[in-house]
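OP here, attaching both records as promised.
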Amino acid sequence: MDDTVRIRRLTPADAAAFQALRLAGLQREPSAFGSSFEEECNETLDAVAQRLAPSPDNAVFGAFDAAGALLGVVGLGRERMLKLRHKGILWGMVVTPEARRRGLGRALMQAAITAAREVPGLLQLNLCVNAQNTAALQLYQSLGFVAFGREPAAMLVDGVLHEEVLMALRW
């Protein structure tokens, strides 16, 4: 990753840029997300800003270029139920096509992992990835994530069933 890209936690002020990037990703690669463009396209900026509000159990990290354009994001959440609160969830990883192959995905993941390790009581991160997304699978494996299962027919997108790989990172 070049020195002109900055990774930081998003704030409610980033809602418009986050929503635009996310909607573009949902349209471009619908099989990469559990959510859909149709579900999120009418979400208000206030609702998006609330998702980005500071919280000890949730964060969204963004990669910004020197001009301040948002190039990629990844979300970090925590399970809410008492017996599951030792687990975090990574969600919504997306990098613009023109910014790929520059190390942004790795930098975003490292920021999320670092933040997760600082959360008291968090011992593990989980994620799901489309089984056909070999680039993402390789990235996650290189960061220490281990596959612990596969969900056949995890998503139905435009009449096509997609399998997901379930992965975890423990510390």
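Record two, same layout:
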Amino acid sequence: MTDVTVVVGAGAIGQAIARRVSSGRHVVLADLKRDNAEQAARVLELAGFTTTATTVDVSDRDSVRALIRTVTGLGDVKLLVQAAGVSPSQAPVATILKVDLYGTAMLLEEFGEVIASGGSAIVISSQSGHRLPALTPGQDRQLATAPAEELLDLPFVREIDDTLLAYQISKRCNSLRVRGQAPRWGRRGARVNAISPGIVITPLAWDELNGERAAFYRDMLARSPAGRAGTPDEIAALAALIAGPEGGYITGSDFLIDGGATANFFHGPDAQGT
């Protein structure tokens, strides 16, 4: 059987990870917009990869199940990269929660039924989840383990009325969700982890750097220990370690890779965190 890499959200980070780890595999690129998936597939095809482009709506379980039928028809799913999402500058609260919070949780539930032995998942979360004001242990546990269909009805989720907070809660859930799913994936001989990038230069990042919070994000970069934004290839290098054989003991973990921006937020000379 052919080994398959599935990239959900065919943007720069998903493409970089697929390119780094998918030699000899069939790469499925799935996106809400077919044009995005087809463009990404063409780029990888020109680099020598075998690809399939398709569509998926990560906020719709039937759409995700249709994607799973497609990819399992091609071979064994060895890697899922969940890179689909919307930012606080791109969508209202309800959409952010449905896509970033519910969508990721549901995707892990569904792919957890078909992931091949020896396979893994990488969820692209965000540094924003690490800046969220402290939740209670009970709230953290609910984000980690509540059935996906119940997440949007949690009282502390329902009361969110700010797009940044919706994004932070969603990304906090992403980081916790891999912990909650790790035992279940382990029973299939598979692993599941998250990466929480800081500002990485992608089209989504350009939206933020030129949007209503542009000054905040540009100041964050200037004050971070690294003094710059990251690149998709740096995220892919970390993903290759986590998902590859050298990362075989890693599961249920979230990796913050933000040039020290979060460290500066909490512990820098003008610390804002508590």
